[in-house]
């Protein structure tokens, strides 16, 4: 029944009427499936040090006259298969992006609900904090948070917690967008009849915010989360390119691009071009889906 209602909905009609959106969804699906199923469908395990052979380093893509079919996109300086490295790297990029967006969504929605519903000095304080943070670029905040956490923890623990630090650093830099959007919607919803009726029957503010106001402000949040997923993936790639992201032993797409950048002008272009193309395809498809979702959920933009 739920699937039938979805297929008969205006949202699905809008989706199938847009060839760009359908193509973007297919590209995003390929990226997600390739990353999720990498341990089973990747030609090689690029992080198994015992299987690496330096004699296979710098092999060009398979269509080159000296390329090999077992390495469709060539190999890097350590003999790792580039196709397999991209699939495994995309897993980390997507994991960081999704977890960072979930964290920033949870934090931003909570702060926005509290600020919008309570108002007064609480609203003023929380929004001024958000305004101050919005004056700084998100990548700068992520770098600052990453640097502070790494300086506070022992060096031997850096690799073990690097993934969590990156997720926290990216997530904490994006919450103001969610908070401001949810606050604006909450200011409208809190004066409607259903909220006033809930107050009259004695429901607590927390119960009203969680069960009455929250479901009615999630539409814009879904759009912002989709668009922020692309930004989070780009931010993680930037941090990894700068050498402060995930550890080199489990590189993301940003790390692969940084490694390939050292060999770009020596002729081994495939080491950086293919990870870069995968990153562009992933982020572009997510952003196009976010644009479509924004238009589909807002009748004024149709």
UniProtKB/TrEMBL annotation:
Q: Does the keyword Nucleus apply?
A: no
Which InterPro entries does the entry link to?
BP-dependent_transpt_permease (IPR050366), MetI-like (IPR000515), MetI-like_sf (IPR035906), OppC_N (IPR025966)
The answer, when asked if Electron transport is one of the entry's keywords, is: no
> What residues does the ABC transmembrane type-1 domain cover?
90-290
Q: Which GO terms describe its biological process?
A: transmembrane transport
The UniProt transmembrane annotation reads 20-42, 92-119, 125-149, 161-178, 269-293
Which Pfam families has this protein been placed in?
BPD_transp_1, OppC_N
Q: Would you tell me the Gene Ontology cellular component terms?
A: plasma membrane
As for membrane topology, the entry says: Multi-pass membrane protein
- State its location(s): Cell membrane
According to the lineage, what is the superkingdom? Bacteria
Keywords attached to this Swiss-Prot or TrEMBL record, sorted alphabetically, are: Cell membrane, Membrane, Transmembrane, Transmembrane helix, Transport
Q: Which family does it belong to?
A: Belongs to the binding-protein-dependent transport system permease family.
Protein name per Swiss-Prot or TrEMBL: ABC transporter permease
The beginning of the lineage is:
Bacteria, Pseudomonadati, Pseudomonadota, Alphaproteobacteria, Acetobacterales
